[in-house]
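User: For my dataset I need records formatted as: sequence, then structure tokens, nothing else. Please produce one.
Assistant:
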Amino acid sequence: MKILGIETSCDETGVAVYDPHGGILAEGLYSQLDLHARFGGVVPELASRDHVARLVPMVRDVLAEAGLELTGLDGIAYTAGPGLVGALMVGGSLATGLAMGLGKPVIPVHHMEAHLLAAMLEDDPPSFPFIALLVSGGHSLLVETRGLGEYAILGETLDDAAGEAFDKVARLLSLPYPGGPPLAALAERGDPDAFRFPRPMLRKGLNFSFSGLKTAVRLALERSVGNGGALSEQLRADVAASFQAAAVETLVVKCLRACAETGLDRLVIAGGVGANVRLRRQLRTRGEERGITVHYPRQSLCTDNGAMIALTGWRRRHEAADSTAIIARPRWPLDELQPPPASAPRLN
């Protein structure tokens, strides 16, 4: 069963074909990074227009790489939310139109569920149940995952998401957008103990708060400049390393606490921040000490992509939409999802 996946929730155009026996048969991904960088963030109207221009040629290229005609597809999955409504409508319109014309099922997919399942595209996929940490520019969630659609939110951000905090601190350090990768690169040259930044809510609960950490970084920079000191490259590197250490420690402690409180010994990390090398290293080391197995998707699958949409579409294939309505939900809580119907085959 070959599923075409279309991802247009924000500023990446992703297309892929997935087959449960062959895995990812072909994929394409285009990032609008250069388009939005000069604005310091994603401009929704520009994002939608760029998806319109690129999506159809990308579908053609991916199908050609997979050696398929449109008629060789068994279903078409698309990101239905959460995301930018205009961008979602672009992918949803193409997916629904293709499905209608081909007489194939169309499957709306929850973007965060797709991130949560992305590690199942790897050679050593996690099995249910597990704890999932979903960390990106817009989300910071700890989820107890008992099965497909069986999600309990254990913790979430009370203000800035982790990726958003990385972007804002990067801006304070005059780093390009998006800030996560350049900040992590700068941090490699710094001392993570140079500044003792706060770890908000570290000692209690499973919720996150990164706003205070971001403010502490801003005040530290203002003090350095205000005292007549130049914002040297080493100072910038030390601030980046100290901020990253604080953010990563917070994420690691919350993940280990969630595993301890639920008794689960599998942990899945997904989303753009999941590509952070320090986070991966610390979770692997501290997880092994506690008998916890940590799973990640490959770095190319941490960002938004069509492969995770195609995979999720296959797992949700029994819920194909039976109407021509295009679903585009800018906000869509993950725990609103339901397991497949009892009549559907149980998937691990």
